[in-house]
Amino acid sequence: MSGFFEEVKRRKVYRVAAAYVVAAGGIIQLASAAFPAWELPNWALRSVIILLLLGFPIALMLAWAYDITAQGIRSTPTTAAPGTHRRRNVIMLVATGVIISAAAGFFLLPRVSAHKVDKSIAVLPFENRSDERENAYFADGIQDDVLTNLSKIGDLKVISRTSVMPYRDKASSAREIGKALGVSTILEGSVRRIGNRVRVNVQLINADTDEHMWAEDYDRDLTDVFAIQTDLAQKIAGELQAKLSPTEKAQIEKRPTQNGEAYLAFVQAHEAFYRPDKFRANSEDAERLFERATTLDPSFALAYAGLAWVEDWMYHSVDPTPARKEKARAAAFEAIRLQPDLPEAHLGLGFYHYYCERDYEGALREFAIAKKSLPNCSEVYMAIGAIERRQGKWTESTANLEIAASLSPKDAWVLQNLADNYRANKNFEMADKLFDRAIEAAPKSLEARGQKGALALDLKGDFTELEKQLALIPPGFDPEGIVTLGRAKVLIMQRKFAEALVTLKQLPQDVIHDSTAPIPRSFLEGVLYTYLSDRKKARAAFEQARPIAEQSLRESPDDASRHVTLGLILAGLGEKDAAIAQGKRAVELLPESQDAFDGPKTTVALAQIYAWTGETDQALQLLDRSLSTPNGVTVPFLRLDPIWDPLRSDPRFQAMVDRYGAKT
What we know:
Elements: H1 2-10, H2 13-37, H3 42-65, E1 66-69, E2 72-75, H4 83-113, E3 120-123, E4 127-128, H5 136-151, E5 157-158, H6 161-164, H7 174-181, E6 185-194, E7 197-206, E8 211-221, H8 225-239, H9 246-253, H10 260-273, H11 280-296, H12 301-317, H13 322-338, H14 343-356, H15 360-373, H16 378-390, H17 394-407, H18 412-424, H19 428-441, H20 446-460, H21 464-471, H22 482-493, H23 497-504, E9 511-512, E10 519-520, H24 521-531, H25 535-555, H26 560-572, H27 576-589, H28 599-612, H29 616-626, H30 635-640, H31 651-663
Parallel strand pairs: 3-5, 3-6, 4-6
Antiparallel strand pairs: 1-2, 6-7, 7-8, 9-10
């Protein structure tokens, strides 16, 4: 061993090693400072470190083999030591270099990988310190506007409002919140309003160290509240060294309204619309409050944009009528007329093109305009992703929804939409994890719990998960009868038809608004009586449901789901040709070629009508294709749902189920 160290000293390897360490340390320090300023990705710094680590053993070998003399670079003279000693020394030299590099890499690389984006921030809910309870909305409004102003700065990463709201009154450290949301800074604050005076206190906190970076107090007249918000956004941007373009500065400085009451109505409307479950009652509350805001201030463009979003959504989800479509159009174009450069107005107009006109290209043009001024808006990325999946661009769609989830990691609605993509493409494991995240983000969300239970049915035909999730819902909580309907559907899949019938009769309403097609309760009763082989009661129930479905279709003749509902009722009544005509019309209105997300569901509905009308060949043909189509039918669903019972006696049905079951 002493011979090895003597050789290292004689060949001046110590000197080269020391010089290499000093030079490499300087390079890493320089790169650590310069790369973020040049906006280079994190992997660039890791690559530099890896190259320097790999170079260290090579430098030692070169120092061993060569020496710098007055005559230039010359081979180092060898000693008269035996050949085995020389080989041993070289092996020890290489091993030493590799060990030192590995140890340095173990120390350096994790710290580089854990490096967060410095210009990232989460604005937590502001504490309401006012005596009046209703001023909580005022505190939320200030927080929301500060967050909105910051999100318009392209050089910042800003977490969405939905993802920070779970931290209201939650005893978590800044470090914990920063880690959960993936940000390096946290803004927290409090608001106290007394009459026409408002006091705002804010602190900017380093999420890595839990230390205060900056604090500010404001004591102003109520009329100066927007000036406070603007000043806060600009000071925070400065503290985080974020670049602020003239356009972004102008957007931040523009006041949305001069009317305090209109502003308060807007904040309340925003809160109602962005609840985790978009129930019809929530949307109607938001609609009423946005309309109040526009009545109080007819020049309030942002409120018109919000109203357009609500009307667009209601047309898309529950009320696809001409009257609703006109309300959506009027609100969207009024927002654009009042403020043509307002990004939220372009977002509202984009949703109108998407939801109401199914004009995907027109919608994408508007979303592209909004995206330029709202670089941190998860709704923009989610909207683009939603259109792309309808276009069959599943990879692009999932990428945009992943961005939306990164900007709003605690938003149950975003997480559910992302899970829908994975579920549609048969990645059930990833979908299940995302539903778990959605439930964690919004424990009271019926949608997230229901989707997780339905996924277990799709994947394994397992009822226990859905029963477990239904059992966790508080007694008496049954908005729009959704919980009762869910329990009835589980009983139907378990073939407990008599129990399902009893459960359905507990519904207080005669018509269930579960989708764009109102579902008469009597239709579901007719289905159950059919399963129970009580033809007389089944026919009476279908006859009772028929005029409701026909009236619904007259109100919205271009809605595919309403054609499906009437088609199934007609199939139950034995009117074969009329039933099939309704199913075919539904597919014409919503073909898979135009909608790769909902189109496959309409195809399956037509297969159900074929099955009920004795057209076995056509039903099997559609199901065979659906089993290999994204968002199509699944094998467990075919095995469990009694609606396919008319096909079970055909050996082709069982062969198809077995064939696809083996693949999955």
